[in-house]
Amino acid sequence: MKKYLFLFLIFLSPALFAQSARYFYDKAGKESSLPEKIKLYTKAINKAPRWALAYHQRGDVYKKQKRYKKAIEDYTSTIKLTPKDPFKYYARALIYMEQGSYSPAMEDLTKAISLKRDFEDFYLKRATCYMQTGKYKLALNDFEKVKKTDTKFLQAKANYELHNYRVAATLLEELLQQNPNNTQVLFYLGKINTDIEFYDEAISYFSHILNQEPNNIPALKARANAFKEIDLDEEVIKDYTALIELSPDAAAYNRRGIAYERLKDWPAAIKDYNKAIELAPKWAVPYNNRAYSKMKLKNFKEAKKDLDTSLKLAPKAPTTLINTAGYYWTAKKDKKNMYANLQAAMKNNFKDFDSLYDDNQKGWLFKNINETLEFRSFSAPYTK
Fold this sequence. Notes:
Mean pLDDT: 92
Strand content: under 5%
Number of strands: 0
C-alpha cells in the first residue's frame, strides 16, 4: 500500500508544481509576449497574494506598455508588502516622473533617501524633480550629494534659473572647454547674455549653434529675440522666415509681423497677421496688431472691427484698450470713449505711459490731445 501511495505522489507532484505560484512566475520570466507575461504574473499573484516580487515584475511589464496607472497600483502593492525597501519607492517615483507628476515622485524619493542615504541616483532624480517644479535651491542641495555623475550642466541650469549668472556661466564655460560645440551649453550661455543685455555675445552663441544645426528652432527664436532688442529687424525677419518654413505657427507669423511693423511695412505686417489669425482664430493678439497696422494705413473702419474682435477674445488686454482709445481719438475725436478706454487700460495694469507721448510709439494715436493739461491730469493718478 505504501508503495502505491509513493508512486501516486510521484505522479501527482508535477501537476502540483504546475499549479504553484513559482511555476507561473518562472514561466512569465521566460515569456516574450507582454500580455502573456501579465497573465502569468497575475496567476502567480492569485496563488501567492503577498508575493511582493511578483507585483513588482508585473508593474515593470505595465510600465513597458505605458499602462502607468496599473504600474503604480502594482508598485504600491510592493511598498505595502515591503515598506522598508527604498528601491520600491524609487520604482514608483520613476513612473510618476515619466508621467510628469513630480510632487508624488519627490515624496517617494524623499522616503527612499530616508531608508538609504548613500544611493546617489535617489538624490539625482529628486534634484530633477526639484528642477521641474522650480525649486532650484533644493535641487542644488541634492546635486551636491551626487559625486559620481557629472551634474555640472544641471547645476548651471539651476543657477541660471536663480539668476546666479556668474556661477552658471563659469560652469558652462568649463563644459564648453571640454566640448566647444555643445549646443545645450551654447544655448544657455546665449540665454545668460540675453538676460544681462549683452546681445551681441548672445547672438554669437546662438549663431554658433545654428552654424551646426540650421534648423534648431529654440536657437532661431532666441537669436531673433536678441536681434529685436538691438533693432536689427531685417535679421529678425530672416530668422522668423526660417522658423515659418520649419514650423508655420501663428506665433511665428505674429512676431514677424511685428518686425515688419517696426520697419513701417504695414502691408507686409498685415499679411502676416492675416496668416496668424487664420492659424489661431481665437487668439486676440494678432487682431489687435492688425488693427494697429490698419490704423497706420488710415483704414479705421476695418481696424475697429479687429479691435472689437480682440476685446471679445481678451476684454481686459491693456494694449488693445489703449489702441481702442487711440482709435476713438484719431478716427472720431471722441474724447468720452477715448478716456473710457484709457481708464480701463490703466486699471488693467497698463504701464508704458511714456509711449502715449512718443509719436514713434503710441503717441501718434493721441496727437495734440496728449499735449494738453487735461490729458496729463487724467493720467497723473496712474503714473505715481
